[in-house]
Amino acid sequence: MPESVPGAGYVLGALAVMFVVTVALRAAPFVALAALKNSAFVAFLGRTMPAGVMVILVLYTLRDVGQTTWLPAAVGLAGTIAVHLWRRNAALSTVAGTGLYLVASALWT
Amino acid sequence: MSMPDRRTSEIRAGVSDSWAVGLGLIPLGLAFGVVLTQGGFDWWWAPIFSTVIYAGSMEFLAIGLIAAVTPFLSVAAATLLVNFRHVFYGLSFPLNRVRGRFARLYSVYALTDESYAIVAPKARETLSSTRILTVQVVCQLVWVASGTVGALVGAVLPEGLTGLEFALTALFTVLAIDAFRANRDLPAPVIALVCGLVALLVAKDEMLVVGLGLFVLCLFVRFVYRDKVARA
């Protein structure tokens, strides 16, 4: 375990929290299907939330990018977008973008 | 056909439905395992993470959240916001085709992006209980196995060989493009970009919860405002 972590109990507790929330979200529509289906706000969230959440997650993963790593990150990001617009294959775009990032990092430092 | 033959052919159908997506999961699973061990965890945490959380993007995020000893309430909030999209999967997933109480519980637990993407678009009448469960089991086996292999490989890799965590950035980028294509709503990702940047500036350590919370708040305001305009 990382040195910052106080013990396995904390890790298992955090995992349990994520398990409960994730399964509750997956089960919610089956438990309250009718109510959710008729909620205009939930329908609105369904259309607007996914793309926005992903954009914030991209920013989150890049939060520690600094002076030494911004160029490889930009190359990897541009490569991922270009390959995905070109071939529309999620696995291919992910692998190609990561590969470009690794190559750019090796060349840049 | 007799019953066992029919079951075999349904399992075969499920495997052929899922092999392409399964191949796509392997590099991501390997990357998860490597990133997990390079984050300081022993390799055997990989199957535990992948079984207990079983939501790929959340597992990557969990490495950082746990290493930072994030309070449980913040962990819950982050999970709620990151995995909220799963609520929408249930609205159109053919759970009524799955037979048996335990099988249904498993099917809900294993309702990932990938299994939804494979099962939901197919015609209901072609989907048997066995076929749906096969798809979900194959996806989970591939995910847990590739994560564990990645962790074992990562444990013997030399220190300093990092960068595979970029796979997560690439994955989110791909999912953002696909989600945008599905709905063509430009304001949402733009609002999200602004919320994310604001969160980075004001609360870098709690960026995820602050950014996502701000984003949902903005969507709510936008929804109420649109409703008012439509009614006027």
Total helical elements of chain A: 5
The residue ranges of chain B in which pLDDT falls below 50 over 5 or more consecutive positions are none
Largest interface: A-B, 69 and 91 residues
Beta strand % of chain A: under 5%
**Gap from first CA to last CA of chain B:** 62 Å
Radius of gyration of chain B: 20 Å
Number of helices of chain B: 11
Number of strands of chain A: 0
Q: Give the N-to-C terminal Cα separation of chain A.
A: 29 Å
Main pleated-sheet profile of chain B: none
Order of helices and strands of chain A: HHHHH
Count of separate structural domains of chain B? 2
Q: Roughly how much helix do the residues of chain A carry, as a percent range?
A: over 70%
Shape of chain B: globular
H/E element order of chain B = HHHHHHHHHHH
Topology of this protein?
The complex is a heterodimer of chains A (109) and B (232).
Chain A: H1 8-31, H2 33-37, H3 40-61, H4 70-87, H5 90-108
Helix pairs in contact in A: 4-5
Chain B: H1 3-38, H2 45-52, H3 56-67, H4 72-82, H5 86-90, H6 101-109, H7 113-119, H8 129-156, H9 166-183, H10 187-202, H11 207-231
